[in-house]
Design a protein that fits this description.
Strands 1-2-3 form a 3-stranded antiparallel β-sheet, covered by helices on one side. Strands 4-5 form a two-stranded parallel ribbon. The chain is an alpha+beta fold.
DNA sequence: TCCGTATTGAACT
DNA sequence: AGTTCAATACGGA
């Protein structure tokens, strides 16, 4: 039972997101579930005050982005992944609100200019979409590329930020 | 070890 | 302007 996340939901007008916290911070964020039964992801009691605080910050950051505004604060992010993935995600966080970068640019900035495909793989493995802005990464020709949460989400998020893409 | 990938740029129709 | 194709790093099975 090593990874016992504490799971809390975030209701937005775009649906119910689910956030999972480790003792280090926000570990995962899920898009609203499409079909049936969004899990009742709430524990009423026994949530440490620290995590409740993080969750308030997460909620407000998420709501800001969904409303097309740049968040003022972020919770501590604690995604689990390989060293390579961590370095990619660290780089993603540096992309400013409303800006985009290509997979190749990310690869260069982490010092592995030829690891372009691997960067794509790391983006797809990102457990904290939206807050770790994997949606701001486009293909070299400014085409959309892919998105694990569905391309509609990627289009929508970029549009709300006023980013330029095709 | 083999396979797929959210890539890329060049070489071809 | 569209299509094919090899190079290439990484992660999962």
């Amino acid at each position: 039972m090593k990874n016992q996340f504490i799971q809390l939901s975030i209701a937005t007008r775009d649906g119910q997101f689910v956030a999972r916290y480790s003792e280090k911070g926000l570990a995962e964020l899920d898009f609203p579930m499409v079909g049936r039964a969004s899990l009742r992801a709430v524990q009423a009691n026994g949530i440490p005050a620290q995590i409740r605080g993080w969750h308030r910050t997460t909620t407000s950051a998420l709501e800001s982005i969904l409303a097309g505004r740049e968040p003022e604060n972020f919770p501590p992010l604690a995604p689990s992944g390989t060293a390579f993935q961590q370095s990619v995600w660290r780089e993603l966080k540096k992309i400013r609100f409303g800006q985009t970068k290509s997979y190749g640019e990310i690869a260069q900035r982490i010092g592995k200019p030829k690891a372009v495909r691997a960067v794509g793989g790391a983006c797809g493995a990102n457990p904290i979409p939206v807050l770790v802005p994997c949606h701001r990464v486009l293909a070299a020709n400014k085409n959309l590329g892919g998105f694990s949460g569905g391309l509609d989400w990627k289009r929508s998020l970029l549009a709300r930020e006023g980013a330029i893409f095709r």
